[in-house]
Structure formats: structure tokens, C-alpha cells
Amino acid sequence: MKTPRTTKKHQPLIIGNWKMNPKSLTEADMLAGGLAKSVPKTGPAAVYAAPPYPFLDVVGKKLRRTRISLGAQDTSTQDSGAYTGQVGVPMLKSMGVEIVILGHSERRALGEANEEVAQKTRGVLKSGLIAVACIGEKKRDRDGNYFNEIEAQLRAILEAITASSLGRFVIAYEPVWAIGTGKHATAEDVQEMKLFIQKVISDTQGRKAVGKVRILYGGSVNKDNAEELLTIGEADGFLIGGASLKALEFSAVVHIADTYARS
Ligand code: PGA
Questions:
Q1: For the chain, which terminus, N or C, has the lower number of CB atoms within 10 Å?
Q2: pLDDT of 229 strictly over 90
Q3: What number of other Cβ atoms are within 10 A of residue 125's Cβ?
Q4: Nearest-CA residue for atom 7 of ligand 1
């Protein structure tokens, strides 16, 4: 039996997180060129590519006449100043970035705490950009303790942002054990976690907030599992790592999301 929908269908968001790839500007230019050629020209899904900072300019130019918009993988809590090695939101905005990924587990593994993720998310939302905050458990246990981990990550962020910015606030549920492993969460896992996340949103921001926040899934998404994760999993889109570095694979996922959104 198909589970009844808990919220109205959102426009799917498909975000490619290139991570620290590729190794050169030339290769980044080629990948962007491949995406420009293969991603369907139009469609209901919103599509983003988030390359490393040094490639934003070249990738942005290559994608200019496509439906793919520019994203960034992180930002500083500060706008500008004496913060060696950091990149602030105003800089990203001036490069044409529209969406910023925050609190990815690979950044949390380097020591980024919930409070910092919350502060960055608030800064991005305040600037008018879309914030994609990543949450996810390190491992699953039979007792369901991972729900507490998710709730702590989520509450820290939700308590830091204003109700008026929720339309630009996106959550990416990315279980750490599913990232880059080829072992994605099942569609049932994703649907269950979406319900749980919605409950925490309702508790902290009120019931009306639930329908405004998009909840994506990330972790070994590819063209073979995308459809099920959208339909049964009820994901509002995907944050894609490995498969975003292959233009044809990424395009296939965009096509699946377009088809789902039209149905
Ligand atoms: P993956 O990465 O698709 O390679 O599992 C997802 C992510 O880290 O955002």
C-alpha cells in the first residue's frame, strides 16, 4: 500500500556536490561543459552544481545559458575581515552563487559543531540565498538512538533561524554511512526520517512551517535508485556527490526528477 503523502509535492531540488573535485580548472570546465550539454534544457526540477570555490567563476560562465545554477559547498560565519582561508557569503553572492551547502558530514568530521552550522545557516538565509543544511547519523542502531542525534543537529539549526526565511531553508538528510559507500538508505528509511524531521520542525517552528521546508536525501544517489527515493521515499530532491561528477549520470537523475515532478 502506498503511504499517503504528508505534504504537498515540492519542486524537486537536485544539487551536485563536487566536493574537492576535479583536480584542475581545465577538468572543471570540461565537466561543466558536459553538464551544459547533457542536462535536459528545461524541466520542473531546480538544478544546481556546487564546485570548489576556485572553479566557481569558470563553471558559472559555462552554465550561464543552462538551467543549472551555481552552488557553494560551505561559507564562513563572517562576512569579511581577518579570517585567512575563509570565504564569506557576500563573496559567494557576488560570484552568482544561489545556494550554499552547510554542515556537510565531511566538514563536521573536521570539527564543525552544530552551533557553527546553525550560525552559517542563519547568515546564508539572512543574505537571501538558499541554505542547504546537512544532517545525518553516523550509524544506525536497533534502539533508534540515531533519532536523538538527528534531533540535536536539527534543533540547533531550527532554533537559530527565523520563520520568515523557511521558504529558502532546505534540509539534506545524509546518513554518514550512506555517503560514498554505494549503500543508500532504503526509500522506507528516507520516508520515515522525513516524517521525523517534519515532527521536529513542527515542534520548534510550528505546524505551518512543515510545508515550507524541503527535505532532500543524500548518500549514494544514482540513476538506479532516484525514482524510488522520490516516489516511496518522498524526498524533495537530492544532494549528489559521486554521481554529480559524471555528466550523463547526473543528467539521468535530473530527467527522473523532472518526470516525477510532472506526474
Ligand atoms: P555521494 O555523496 O552521492 O557520493 O554518496 C553525497 C554527499 O556527500 O553529499
A1: N
A2: yes
A3: 23
A4: 241
